[in-house]
Amino acid sequence: MSEQQVKGTGIIPVISYIKAHYGDEGWEKMLARIPAPTRDLFRHRIMPITWYPHDAVSLLYDAVCDEFGHGDPKFCWTVGKDAADYGLSLIYKFFLSFGSPMMFGSKGPEMWKTYYQPSTLEVLTNEKGAISLVIHNLRTSLAHLYSVAGWMERAGELTGGKNIKVIVDPETLRFEITYE
Q1: What percent of the chain has pLDDT over 70?
Q2: What mean pLDDT, rounded, does the chain reach?
Q3: Which residues pair with 52 in a beta bridge?
């Protein structure tokens, strides 16, 4: 398998979230938790269209979890929701034009490949009120998976869904999404 990569658009909103909520001091404290080679990467400007090693985003989410979430990876759910606001309101606004979670769900594989490679997202079922999907060929941290779930929840809200519930199985990388 090729080296896993994440586009800068998958990293920038995490950095923005940390700096907005914890300031530069919080950013520096969190950054100190990341090994030197990756920490050095984050000391440079992250470009939205550049591909970066996926390990960097996993280490970033783990450090966020440890520094601000007291070791609870579910803390990153909120970070993922914020990342969806960034990505879908600014960068990928086009995808919001689909107008419903069901229509947006049908575009899941296309959206996924704008953030991650070579992993893929497969939509198993997509019907009114329920979407089931699985991510293939992704090695990542639990904190990052919870951020992906938060991103999915917020994407559902931004496309008009109500009472959205996302259940993630970290072993199989399967996500079950229900909504009204």
Answers
A1: 93
A2: 92
A3: 6
Under the banding of pLDDT at 50, 70 and 90, the label for residue 98 is: low
- Render the burial of 95-133: b for 16+ CB within 10 Å, e for the rest: beeeeebbebbeebeebbeebbbebebeeeebeeeebbb
Q: Which of 117, 108, 122, 110 is nearest to 57 (CA)?
A: 117
Pairing of strands 120-127, 165-169: unpaired
Closest CA to 50 of 38, 58, 41, 59: 41
**Please, what is the angle between helix 54-68 and helix 142-158, to 10°?**
90
The mean pLDDT value for 34-42 works out to 95
Give all domains of the chain, ordered by start, each with its CATH number: 1-180 (3.90.1520.10)
- AA letter at 72: D
The residue written with tokens 């800068």 in the block is: 8
pTM (2 decimals)? Answer: 0.93
14: tokens are: 């995490």
The region, left, alpha or beta by phi > 0 then psi within -120 to 50, assigned to residue 26 is alpha
Task: Give the C-alpha separation, 179 to 93, whole Å.
Answer: 21
Distance CA 131, CA 143 (A): 22
Going across the sheet that includes 51-53, the strands are: 51-53, 5-7, 116-117
